[in-house]
Amino acid sequence: MDSACALNYAQLETLGEGHHGTVLKASSVGEDRDVAIRKVAYDGYDKRRLKKLLTAKTCKSLFLVEYYDVFVHEKELWYIMEYLQTYTLDAFVRSRIAFSEEELREIASCCLLGLDSIHNHRVLHGNVKPRNMFITQNGVVKLGDYALPLQEDYSKLKVEELWYMAPEALKWKEGPKSDVWSLGISLIELAEGRNPFSGCDNEARTGSRMRTMGFPSLSYDRWSFLFKDFVNACVTKEVNGRFSVAELLCHPFVLEAAERIESGMCSPVLANLVKRFQKHVLCENLLKGEVGCCCLVSHYPHFCWFHNGIAEASSRVIEMSEELVIEADIRLKELLRVNGEEMKAIQHNVVLDLNDDGERWEGDVLQNKPYGWGVLYDSENRMVYEGFRIGDVNVCYGRSYYPDIGVVEYEGEICEGKRWGRGALFDRNGNTVFEGEWMNHECEMEKRVEIQKEVDDHVLFHTLLEEVIVSDRCCDGIEWKVLRLSFLFNLRELRVGDECFWYVEEVEAVGLKKLETVVIGKNCFRKRRITWNRNERLFFWLKNCPVVKELRIGRGSFQYYTVCEIENDDCLEVAEIGSVRESSCNFSCASLELKNLPALKSLVLGQDVFCFCVRAVLENLPEVASIQLGYSALHFVEDDASELVMRNLPNLTTLSFSALTFDLPHHITLENMPKLANAHLPANAFQYKDDVIIKGGFSFRSVLCLDVGVFASYFSS
């Protein structure tokens, strides 16, 4: 515990901060390795906890993040830990990744093996959750942040920390089976994408949910009986009835997997999971940049989006496939990166004999195989291909020849040896047969896809699609987590039937320059929940679509979403959400941003639409003449932060209300609505106006009214 030990580490950068202190990356002086250091405040009194930490240091397991040392330095506990350049399982959850049951079995097995090690040393983990589960490239899940000092006051914990705590832990009676409970809750979150206590915003509500909801369980029927039984054994409320780690290791759900992983020291299933996730992250990051023409197929819903094809970015061509993500510069004829790694070891201008028949490659070579730009010759010394090539596969861009006459057959973009992207096909006389976009060696792609119930478990979206039609009750499984349409650059029309996409939590239609129509039926995008949590990001975005004219959403859709943003859609003329004649409950607790819509003429929000919103902004709608609001639409939630902004609606003449509309906003900005002459407010509208303070005051409840037609007399009364 000598504080001089601190001199052995050169601190490099901060990795994170939380209630358990600060985590830094550091270099171990005199050793060729990086470490992670967690610093936790220490008052010197908890000798028992310090003893436990020293015991935890002796826990050595492949399934634990190793503690190299623990010591006190300047009233801080320093944990010197193994540094892992990898992902936590929390990153998968945040990316809306759908785990298979096989993957969850392997994850559970690794976690149990790690817990078994520390429990055998009479040490509790005390902090089991996806954020503390690190998954390595060779397919091992390691538990980290175990045996940390207990928080003396749970009110100081982030509310999300409480969601993983066992009932007895909330009463300060934690034991080894408390870790089992936390593992069960974590598995539910990984399986269903949401913690069962999500929405509980304090300790009291978390405890209340535990008492009233029975025990948490897997809610979806895709899971096997064995998996459900395993999870139930983890989250039994009564400690005596809950399985121990040793008992769980004998459970048939994990028995074979745990023995296999322990003996083989890794899981090929999890190694493949990490590999695919790395490709997923890399592709998503590349597509967020300035990408031009794309010809991509997205295999969906398996493992979120899986892209296959070609994307352009300036002079670069990016090839995306299941195995490789290749970036190449056509102008420089240079291979830049493969799977995110820069290609610095490539040898240039190499003549490489490929076989005994005389075929050869002249160009870039890595590890004695073609790797970059070059020319391929056949056994008769005829040019067959010039372009990028890795191994025996043409990639990214090149031109193939009719070898007997030396005439170009095809020139353009390539993916996995197939014509893919922009390219031209020529006949033997050099005449153009086809010039345009290719996909999977085909130049005629179906521009319309209609998703039926029978085939919704594996849908191919590609960038040449112009129409997407979804039949009733399709795509309603838990594997559908997100619907990102922004890469469908040619999409003109999206029509969704009733009761579709129940588990989708993100709908993103941004920058679609050809999109004209969005029509969504009843009761879509609305997985049932016990409570709402405003901090969750369940969002609908329709932004920067310059020719979209129509948005219609049937009643009941997006009920539990928290964000609705419709912005910068220059041609949007009609926006209807829900029905004014029937209870609709669209976006019940969502905030609304409706801005910069120069062509919008009418807006209809049905009954109970945005009824518990915190913030609603209607701004820069120069052509809107009428707004129709159903019963309880834009009612607002009782919250000091609730805010209504209506600004720059110069042609608004009619505002139709029903009871409870505009009932509870605390902050109100009404500006530039000079023609508003017909607005019969319900008696309870703006009920806080009696204690408002006009601009310049310090109240949390304030109203700013500038040139607002009939509203002016209302607020001046």
Quick synopsis:
This protein is an alpha/beta fold and 717 residues long.
Mean pLDDT: 85
Specify the CATH class of the domain at 87-270.
Mainly Alpha
The CATH homologous superfamily of the domain at 87-270 corresponds to Transferase(Phosphotransferase) domain 1
Separation of the first and last Cα atoms: 72 Å
Poorly predicted ranges? 690-703
- What characteristic shape results from the CA principal axes? flat
Helix/strand/pairing category: alpha/beta
**How many H/I helical runs?**
11
Q: Which fold name is given in CATH as the topology of the domain at 87-270?
A: Transferase(Phosphotransferase), domain 1
Helix content: 10-25%
Percent range for β-strand residues = 25-35%
Overall description:
The chain is α/β, with parallel strands linked by helices and 717 residues long. Among the domains are: 5-82, Phosphorylase Kinase, domain 1 (2-Layer Sandwich); 87-270, Transferase(Phosphotransferase) domain 1 (Transferase(Phosphotransferase), domain 1), CATH 1.10.510.10; 298-438, no CATH class. The chain contains 11 helices and 42 strands. The strands form 6 sheets. Strands 26-28-30-32-34-36-38-40-42-41 form a 10-stranded parallel beta sheet, covered by helices on one side. A 9-stranded parallel beta sheet has the order 23-25-27-29-31-33-35-37-39, with no helix packed on it. An 8-stranded antiparallel beta sheet has the order 15-16-17-18-19-20-21-22, with no helix packed on it. A hairpin with a 5-residue loop joins strand 2 (21-28) and strand 3 (34-41). It is flat, with a radius of gyration of 30 Å. It starts with 8 loop residues before the first strand and ends with a helix. Mean pLDDT is 85; it is low at 690-703.
